[in-house]
Write a structure and sequence with these properties.
By secondary structure, this protein is α/β, with parallel strands linked by helices. It contains ten helices and 16 strands. The strands form three sheets. Strands 3, 5, 6, 7, 8, 15 and 16 form a seven-stranded mixed sheet that branches. The protein is globular and about 60 Å long.
């Protein structure tokens, strides 16, 4: 089968389109013929060697949409089922294997293209908003990187939940209209967001702040987090660790929560099926959507990574297999 592999860490040039052996399923796994796979920022970090160690060669890709072509005799999946999945060994390929607990059926009215955009960012966003942040309609929330995949979904899910005030940060105000169309009420940059949040809340601060950037953004988020508020930390796209002191949370009764979808896939996959069902239903009913910025052919993975690293885009980037 055709796949995109890499034999070393580095820039997008290390991605190689080539032939590899088709994977075989083991017990409680299914083989999926991939239609589309999404490009996530975690792929960029892994390719560059900034996210764990690699055993070369390996295939990137966290999620995919496609059709089941093989399953165990006692499986509840059958050949021809339309699914989204988190494959065990990458999704930049024509075929991939996934554990049954990480495969979820999708309805016929949901296109493979839209389905491929949703697994990582939508399921992560739903969990962050409803389970980790436990956001209420009366809350003021801050979504960092609001134009990104997770930010885009957080904004829509928050709007659907009736959240009264949603503040989003962007690296470039050229993305302001896009973010506001998603449901964000106030858009600001990373340079002035703390001051703007305090202004918008009569200096009380936001009840929940979603931080995937880390670095200085984390400490400045604490500058505008309300008493009893929650900082939800789920990434470090800045490449720098965020820091805080125990005094930042003790007397103010504030708390900091962390979450990783990757850790959950590995250690608590049973948590994902109920979320997948809710998210897929909302997409199928067009209650939310994740606009696709650009679709590249699988052999153009290098170009897709270059676009992602340029930050000169909003919406989702996909690979068509």
């Amino acid at each position: 089968m055709k796949a995109v592999i890499q034999n070393e860490f580095g820039d997008p040039h290390v991605l190689t389109f080539t032939d590899v052996e088709r994977p075989e399923i083991e017990k409680n796994e299914v083989l999926i013929e991939i239609a589309y796979t999404s490009v996530n920022y975690a792929d960029i970090k892994k390719r560059a060697g900034k996210k764990g160690k690699g055993v070369f060669p390996f295939i990137l890709g966290l999620d995919a949409a496609g059709t089941v072509v093989e399953a165990s005799a006692d499986s509840h999946f059958y050949k021809g089922d339309r699914v989204i999945a988190f494959p065990r060994s990458g999704s930049y390929a024509e075929y991939a294997v996934a554990k049954e607990q990480l495969v979820f059926k999708i309805p016929d009215q949901l296109s493979f293209e839209q389905a491929a955009a949703l697994p990582t960012v939508s399921m992560l966003s739903y969990i962050l908003l409803h389970e980790i942040g436990q956001v209420k309609a009366t809350d003021t929330i801050v979504i960092h990187s609001a134009a990104g995949g997770v930010g885009s979904m957080l904004a829509q899910f928050a709007r659907a939940a009736g959240v009264e005030k949603i503040i989003g940060t962007v690296g470039n105000l050229a993305k302001e209209d896009y973010v506001k169309n998603l449901g964000v009420n106030v858009v600001c940059t990373y340079d002035n967001f703390a001051e703007e949040v305090l202004k918008q809340t009569d200096h009380r601060g936001a009840q929940v702040i979603f931080d995937s950037v880390a670095g200085e953004v984390t400490s400045r988020s604490l500058d505008c987090l309300a008493l009893y508020g929650t900082l939800v930390q789920f990434g470090n796209s800045s490449g720098k660790a965020g820091t805080f002191k125990t005094s930042d949370v003790h007397s103010s009764c504030r708390n900091i929560k962390g979450f990783s979808l990757g850790t959950t896939r590995k250690h608590a996959p049973e948590r994902l099926a109920p979320v997948a069902q809710k998210v897929v239903k909302r997409f199928a009913l067009n209650e939310v959507e994740l606009p696709v910025a650009q679709v590249f052919d699988l052999k153009e993975a290098e170009l897709a990574h270059q676009l992602m690293e340029s930050r000169n885009y909003a919406e989702k980037v996909l690979l068509k297999v």
